[in-house]
Amino acid sequence: MNYLLHCISGSLREKGVIFYHVSDRLEPRGILFGATVFGKCESMPPLARRAMKLFSWRGVFGNADDCETDLRSELEKRFTDVKIELEGCVGLFSCRKP
Question: Per-residue pLDDT tens for 15-58?
């Protein structure tokens, strides 16, 4: 799920339904991984912040309220071994189907 979630409108809590569908398609102990851009990011440089606002205004991004805490919460509802690493404002995640 590389660079997909931040392009879908709604909060991560609303987008969480995606993980139910993905989980249904994974084999037992299968691994889900991906990356997303968090809109709630204190370390975002000014130019990146302007670009994000433009992408949001155009409807390309739907991540204004996305944060690591919400992603972790949604993944932990359906998966085990949840790992999230931050690289700037990008969350790299992986988890395993029970």
Answer: 999 999 999 999 999 999 999 999 998 888 999 999 999 999 99
Domain ranges of the chain: 5-96
pLDDT tens per residue across span 50-92? 999 999 999 999 999 999 999 999 999 999 999 999 999 999 9
Structural contact between residues 71 and 84, judged by C-beta atoms closer than 8 angstroms: yes
Residue 40: CB atoms within 10 Å: 14
Residue-wise DSSP of 36-50: EE-SS-TT--HHHHH
Which fold does the domain 5-96 belong to in CATH? Answer: Rossmann fold (3.40.50)
72: which 2 tokens?
A: 């972790």
